[in-house]
Write a structure and sequence with these properties.
There is one protein chain. The protein has one domain: Retinoid X Receptor (Orthogonal Bundle). Helix 2 packs antiparallel against helix 5. About 65% of the residues lie in helices and about 5% in strands. It is globular, with a radius of gyration of 18 Å. It is mainly alpha-helical and about 190 residues long. Strands 1-3-2 form a three-stranded mixed beta sheet.
Length: about 190
């Protein structure tokens, strides 16, 4: 199949769509989200968008490439760490050299983590959904959310872990699921 190199312009055109879909996803995991004031909703979503993108790239990229440093940005676009100049191939971009240095540094750090995560064991669809829910609940502590709202996120995370353990015991009939649970926790922590 043909894939296209993502560029800076395309990447930011996707953000309104990603933001809208993330809003829907957070509401499905966390029904109380509608009760949160709009300014805090925006703060929470802004905190989650990078994590969500990273997890989505992981999900789309797992097992698809022969070499490290490549990730799927959408169904038809990829980012290749070895070709950052293609990402910045946009007319009128100011301070392109500065942007290139920042991109290379950030991409290097991110892709090192990303490539290590890509080596982890396969997880089931249920575990992937749990990872999404856990990631949503692992908010940056610098957000300084009101205790009531933070408690709702904490309660949701506890519920997800309890449901995941039921899944391991009843559906997979596992007695020892510590390594599988550890993989889910590692994956959610890596993207948070």
């Amino acid at each position: 199949k043909d894939l296209f190199m993502s560029n800076f312009e395309f990447f930011y055109l996707l953000y309104p769509i990603v933001f809208k879909e993330l809003n829907k996803l957070v509401r499905s995991v966390f029904p109380e989200f509608d009760e949160i004031p709009d300014n805090l909703k925006c703060t929470i979503l802004a905190n989650l968008i990078g994590k969500f993108n990273g997890l989505e790239y992981y999900y789309r990229s797992k097992g698809k490439f022969q070499r490290p440093g490549i990730c799927m940005c959408s169904l038809i676009t990829v980012f290749d760490y070895d070709s950052p100049e293609e990402f910045l191939a946009v007319e009128g971009l100011e301070r392109k050299e500065d942007m290139m240095r920042t991109l290379i540094t950030t991409a290097s750090d991110y892709m090192n983590i990303f490539d290590q995560i890509m080596q982890t064991e396969e997880i089931s669809e249920t575990e992937f959904h749990a990872t999404i829910a856990i990631l949503i609940c692992q908010l940056d502590t610098t957000l300084h959310l009101p205790d009531r709202i933070q408690r709702l996120f904490d309660e949701t995370r506890v519920r997800v872990f309890a449901e995941l353990q039921v899944y391991y015991r009843e559906e997979l009939e596992l007695k020892d699921f510590s390594s599988r649970l550890g993989n889910v926790m590692s994956l959610s922590t890596a993207f948070s």
